[in-house]
Write a structure and sequence with these properties.
Helix 3 (217-229) runs antiparallel to helix 14 and helix 12 runs parallel beside helix 14. The strands form seven sheets. The protein has a 15-stranded antiparallel sheet that branches. Strands 26-27-28 form a three-stranded antiparallel sheet. It has two domains: 5-183, Beta-galactosidase, Chain A, domain 5 (Distorted Sandwich), CATH 2.70.98; 220-309 and 331-594, Glycosyltransferase. Residues 597-609 have low confidence and may be disordered. The protein is built from 15 helices and 28 strands. It has 609 residues and is α+β, with helices and mostly antiparallel strands. It is globular and about 75 Å long.
Length: 609
């Protein structure tokens, strides 16, 4: 199967997620968590690496959509002999992970083929499969057990479980796949219709809270649901995506594991939630962040596991051929050990934005801010690996220095409460001004009339779009205008924005990748700040056309092949969609607010934990 990323839709239970191909095959599922080993890994291999397909015969037409305001996927199938629909969802987690599929007959008679291939350990381990009773099979290997319950008669053949059934108008055939730890007893039966009603209620209660966002309310609501689905409910951590190793170039090696929580997403995510009134979700994310980084500030990482795990050892799975033969398939992410100065700026900015947005300060936030700034004061002059996690050694990235400036600048927005606070603020102000002067001297290329990616080098970088967005300089400053013009000239291709020119910048990897969608949203946000509302709206509308048929975005896009690239669905892309929509539809959106931080704080909305 030569799939494209846009062929997939996501279902999930706020602890893990599955990807469903439009053909009816579930090709990716990790249990019990987002970052657990996959039991269906066909996405990165072949059918023998695990999948679960319920496919109609003789299909002539396929349509699919989420039920309004939910993560319940409904696929409508028309065949030569009739019509039917398949309803796919994961019910909100109680004690167990349940993936439920319901096949309903609409017209005539439709025949379906079922094939279940369970392969634990990312497609490598074949379980022992037995029939527990006429309606239940059990697959067990090591610590994992899966139970499949269905009235359809299933049989084992060639290490696969298969079956055939038909539905006519009014028929209702449920399938329930349940995961549990192998030493535990068989989980209780779940009634599919009850689970469907409960799942719909869960998602509607969440999405109905979304206020109007101009003409883009539906797209914003879909992105909010996606962010909620990417949230690990027990902790509040938000994974960057539910996949690993979906390539940034088909056949290339830029394949990374994104099933972890990045600190730099913090401010953007908080803005998305708070501007739409989702203060509980914002508080959960803020509190996860502060728990994850607790400890020696010198040991703060750029990313963590969904519960705050720090050891994210990177390794390769050679038995998987990769998505459309894009090797290697990587598990874990070595970038967790990199030094990236910008995340410290994101940390302090997050705390400032949280207070300004109305969240009661966390009990540890003041001390964490202080020790983080003390450490940053000793290291901001050092080179780092930068926002894009380059693997070619450390350099003096302009964006990294700007975010160090942000850290000290935002610290000045807090009202001093003691003589020590006042003394600290004097130091922070002096360091802030020193960083600002250095960036303007070393990070600006007068010949190009633009800031550059790295001190002393001529290369451009889309991360420079953050300069005006974080308030480093006003959006009408000639140096900002020159930088935006240079980026539009050199990095915007086919109307969309590259992160940087990989064929010019040595980043330790072969060149070539798609257009990075978050960067295009940043460009639109800059256009809003500059008063170019027509241009901003046109770019935003172009980005909306990249969403697949169920409203999901990956990390990147290839305008030549007209397909999405990179891990999917991508939180950073959906955060960008939300923030740009709010920027375009409100007089004071996230871009204007973040670029002009002040000390005013409205009445607190929630305290967090």
């Amino acid at each position: 199967m030569d799939a494209i990323i846009a062929d997939y839709a996501m279902i999930g239970d706020c602890e893990t997620a599955a990807l469903v191909h439009r053909s009816g095959s579930i090709d990716w599922l990790c249990l019990p968590r987002f970052d657990s080993d996959a039991c269906f890994a066909r996405l990165l291999g072949d059918r023998d690496n695990g999948h679960w397909s319920i496919c109609a015969r003789d299909v002539t037409e396929t349509r699919r959509a989420y039920r309004d305001g939910t993560l319940i996927l409904v696929t409508y199938l028309v065949t030569k002999t009739g019509a039917a629909r398949v309803i796919d969802f994961m019910s909100p987690r109680d004690q167990q992970a349940d993936l439920i599929r319901i096949v309903e007959g609409i017209q005539g008679r439709v025949t379906f083929d079922v094939e279940l291939v369970i392969r634990f350990d990312y497609g490598r381990t074949t379980p022992w499969v037995t029939h527990e009773d006429p309606t239940t099979i059990m697959a067990v290997a090591g610590p994992n057990t899966l139970f499949l319950q269905s009235p359809v008669r299933l049989r084992g053949q060639d290490m696969r479980t298969q079956g055939v059934f038909s539905v006519k108008a009014g028929d209702h055939v449920p399938f329930l796949l349940t995961h549990c730890v192998s030493r535990h007893q068989r989980p209780p039966h779940v009634e599919a219709r009850t689970a469907l009603d409960n799942t719909e209620r869960f998602w509607r209660e969440f999405s109905d809270r979304c206020p109007p966002v101009g003409p883009w309310t539906n797209q914003v609501k879909r992105s909010l649901i996606t962010l909620k689905a990417l949230t690990y409910g027990p902790t509040g951590g938000i994974v960057a995506a539910v996949t690993t190793s979906l390539p940034e170039k088909i056949g290339g090696t830029r394949n990374w594991d994104y099933r972890y929580c990045w600190l730099r997403d913090a401010t953007f995510t908080l803005q998305s939630f708070m501007h739409l009134g989702y203060f509980d979700e914002a508080a959960a994310w803020r509190d996860w962040l502060l728990r994850a980084i607790a400890g020696d500030p010198a040991q703060m990482q750029i990313m963590y596991g969904v519960s705050g795990e720090r050891r994210l050892t990177e390794w390769e799975a050679p038995w998987l051929e990769g998505f459309r033969k894009s090797r290697p398939v990587r598990i874990g992410n070595a970038a967790a050990d990199q030094m990236q100065l910008d995340v410290r700026g994101e940390l302090v900015d997050t705390m400032a934005r949280a207070v300004k947005g109305g969240l009661v300060p966390h009990p540890r936030s003041a001390e964490l801010r202080r020790v983080s700034l003390e450490y940053l004061a000793t290291v901001w002059r050092e080179p780092d690996e930068g926002i894009w996690e380059m693997r070619a050694g450390r350099r003096h990235f302009t964006h990294s220095k700007v975010m160090a400036w942000v850290a000290f600048d935002r610290a000045l927005t807090y009202e001093p409460k003691s003589n020590r606070d006042r003394a600290d603020q004097q130091r922070w102000r002096a360091i802030r001004d020193e960083i600002h002067a250095e960036i303007c001297e070393k990070g600006f290329d007068t010949a190009q009339n633009s800031f550059t990616q790295i001190y002393g080098e001529p290369w451009l970088d889309a991360s420079l779009l953050q300069l005006a967005l974080v308030g480093f300089l006003p959006p009408n400053d000639p140096r900002i205008l020159g930088t935006i013009a240079a980026i539009e000239k050199r990095l915007v291709r086919d109307g969309l924005t590259l992160r940087y020119e990989t064929d010019l910048v040595g980043d330790g990897l072969p060149p070539g990748e798609g257009r990075f969608l978050a960067c295009s949203f940043w460009l639109a946000d800059n256009m809003v700040l500059m008063g170019r509302h027509t241009d901003a709206r046109a770019l935003f509308e172009r980005l909306l056309t990249i969403c697949n048929d169920v409203g999901l975005l990956a990390e990147q896009y290839d305008p030549d092949a007209k397909e999405m690239l990179g891990n999917f669905p991508q939180a950073f892309s959906h955060v960008g969609l939300i923030n740009t929509a709010v920027n375009l539809s409100r007089a004071m959106g996230p871009a204007l607010e973040r670029a002009a931080v002040d000390t005013a704080a409205p009445e607190a909305k929630v305290s967090g934990t």
